[in-house]
Amino acid sequence: MSAAPTISVVMAAYNAAELIGETLDSLAAQSFGDFEAIVVDDRSTDDTAAFVARWPDPRVRLIVQDSNGGPVLARNRGVAEARGRYIAALDHDDLCRPGRFAAQVAYLDAHPEIALLGTAADYLTDGKVTPSIYPVTTSPALIAWLSQIENPLVWSSVMLRTDAARRLDPFTRPAMLYAEDFDLYHRIRPFGGIARLDTPLLVYRQHAGGISKRFVGTMETSAARVLAEAHAATLGDRAAEIADLLVRHNMTKLPVPDRATLAALGWGIATLQATFLASHPSCSAEDIRLIRWETALRWARIGRAGLRAGTIGVADVIAVRPPHLGLGYAGAGDLLWSGLVGGVRRAHRRWTRHTLAE
To answer: In this structure, are 288 and 317 located in the same domain?
Structure first.
């Protein structure tokens, strides 16, 4: 067997023949070429396995599962077969920019305290590439905080140390299906920090066949379980309630239905943030500024969504604003305009109900 490569790319694939060629091409274009790519075919019903078997690059290795077991088991199989010092995650439909591996290896080599490193990502939708909605500027402290209230990284951008991955048993948990990456970010913390390169070195493909589009309900349920487990010590009996609210109204961006829900969510975010900062005394002034700013942006978005939906009013937003979040850096004019939009929608709903009742 040849010498072990620096990177093992692990890719679970199912019915991927239409798109996986572009993904493998993006690997071939990497400026850092010391890698192996392990493609684990999860018993596709198309010709994915045959397509990968014919791929001319000898760095690409095909493993075919004995039976279809889903992406978690396929990915875990790939990690078990990895020979590299680092493991790079990549889904079969996403694309790496040419400098991705070089930048991540350089960072991880220089920062032994970091176990897992993502990158910023752009979105590819209907042939058009646009920036993601993730923060433009981050720090390891900000990524650690955001993981308390949402999933802060695109899985396909992640590179992690193989020795840390080996200490996770299993690598990703089947019980957290479709939020197994989010779960992993919490479980890997005892073995090192998490960081992100702010250069978009990945292109994340959004399409109707993607897992994030087809299994939204399962993903939300699993994400809520991840947060409930993470916050049990801090929030006690309310951990499951607040976790569900964070998924619904921060991650999925559904409007809050009433003032009581907004108040509960605000209490949860403020409590978690205070606990996080108290337990991370090494946060710099810039870390704290980023954490406050990004949290306030999310609070403003939550408030605006409820105002525009007409489920809450401006008075509700003002009445329940938690410490350090204020109005979420939303200007008074912005709030009033959103409230006017919501008022029109409430009036329309009342008129419709009245008309149907006649």
So the answer is: yes
Residue 2 falls within a domain, yes or no? no
Kindly report the average pLDDT of the chain as a whole number: 91
Question: Which pLDDT value is given to residue 321?
Answer: 86
Q: Are 86 and 57 in contact (CB under 8 A)?
A: no
Assigned domain for 1 exists? no
Does one domain contain both 264 and 309? yes
Q: Are 62 and 39 a contacting pair, CB within 8 Å?
A: yes
Residues 200 and 285 reside in one and the same domain: no
- 168-216 pLDDT per residue, tens: 999 999 999 999 999 999 999 999 999 999 999 999 999 665 455 457 8
Residue 323: CB partners within 8 Å, gap ≥ 6? 270, 274
Task: Tell me: cis bond preceding 170? Omega within 30 of 0 counts.
Answer: yes
Does 193 fall in a domain? yes
pTM recorded for the entire structure:
0.89
**Segment 114-127 mean pLDDT:** 96
Residue 194 is part of which domain span?
7-209
